Amino acid sequence: MESTDRSPKASHPHPHILVFPYPAQGHMLSLLDLTHQLGLRGLTITILITPKNLPLLSSLLCSHPSSITPLVLPFPSHPLIPPGVEHVKDLGNTGNLPIMAALGKLRDPLIHWFNSHPNPPMAILSDFFLGWTQHLATHLNIPRISFFSSGAFLASVLDYIWNNVENLKPLSEVEFSYLHGSPVFKQEHLPSVFKLYKRSDPDWEFVKDGFTANTKSWGCVFNSVDALETEHVRCLKTLVGHDRVFTVGPLSLTSPGVSGRGNSGSESDRNDRVLTWLDGCADGSVVYVCFGSQKLLTKEQMEALANGLEKSGTRFIWVVKTGTTKQQEDGYGVVPDGFEERVAGRSMVIKGWAQQVSILNHRAVGGFLSHCGWNSVLEGIVGGVMILAWPMEADQFMNAKLLVDDMGVGVRVWDGADAVPDSDELGRIIAKSMNEGGGVKAKAKELKQKALAATSDGGSSRKDLDRNDGG
């Protein structure tokens, strides 16, 4: 690892670092996986958590009983967060702003803890939604490492838009001319957190400042693969002005089970039934359909998707997120009447949770109709399946561009969180992609091999993890 005056590397045999995850599933799982890897490399780690999120650490703490310790601080109050809520899943995507703002109030308790600790941390490793910790680290005179649960492409996009808010807000399209391929995005396809920004609102100014601080950190760590983002990693190194940019993913491959992804009991039985059904299907013949844990489809979207899947004539597994009783009464997440009977034999509809990783890794699955959330993207890559992209919000349009345009491992199916697809067109695209997408499928299998190689001995991710030993 490169030497620097403020390097987290030290002569202490077990350097102490503070890890600060952001309480959203897509962010936290991968940082817990990275924390596990750092624990294996001999670090002493304090992980900051709020009371209701402490159970999420149980398997990690069991794996490292002596080297990883939780620091439990009360979740600060915020007028937009109901009492008892400490995780984004309980608020939805719009909950990110108040949660980011609330967590900023932990600065003073952290300083107090740091100053009273007999062996205070020599570095902070924190999520990129907690950019304010860069200022905290400067105050404490220690380095901060930004952890991105997503890729280097998104990091470059975020840095540019947050540093040029006033110029970009009026534009219908934004061109990123300094990035590889000079990508252009419609205003509505930029990250949700940027689209919601309100100038002069104290919470939003705090968030903006945090995002611009990320690239000023000592180093940036990504749950990504160099082979997926080679040029974007190179661009980011130029942007930050140093080589302390680490791609260490897919982290799910390096730490199976530590972040508590699995489920048991009835869900385990259901998973066995799904895999048994897949065993009876031809190689690459099944489309797996899932839009993540956050997105609940409207009645119109459910009907259009159901009709499209039916018209495609393709075998499929559809994981349906179901809403509250009131949402179901309005048709949210409700499978149309008679649909399951009409497609019986060539489909499985799963309501609730599914073991996505084992399904995507089954030889029978050839396509993944996805919202292109980053964790899903990586799981699709590791499964070696073609991505049928329907990006909706957050970073998903950037991820879809990376998969479809840059890497050629995906096909655009639809886009937009509120869009209702034309079911004939949707069925046609799915059928054509599954039946004729040989080139795309082959590239997806190639990328899988590169991802597996990256996390093996001598691979790029393994090297960056070891280069990052001590920070």
UniProtKB/TrEMBL annotation:
Task: Indicate whether Glycosyltransferase appears among the record's keywords.
Answer: yes
The UniProt entry's coiled-coil ranges are none
A Pfam family reported for this protein in Swiss-Prot or TrEMBL: UDPGT
The biased composition feature labelled Basic and acidic residues covers 460-471
Protein keywords: Glycosyltransferase, Transferase
- Top-rank taxon: Eukaryota
Q: Which InterPro entries match?
A: UDP_glucos_trans
Instruction: Report the SUPFAM superfamilies cross-referenced here.
Output: UDP-Glycosyltransferase/glycogen phosphorylase
User: Which molecular function GO terms apply here?
Assistant: UDP-glucosyltransferase activity
UniProt cross-references to Gene3D superfamilies, sorted A to Z:
Glycogen Phosphorylase B (3.40.50.2000)
Give the residue ranges for region: Disordered. Answer: 451-471
Task: List the signal peptide residues.
Answer: none
Record has Magnesium as a keyword: no
Family per similarity comment: Belongs to the UDP-glycosyltransferase family.
Protein name, per record: UDP-glycosyltransferase 89A2-like
The organism encoding this protein is Herrania umbratica
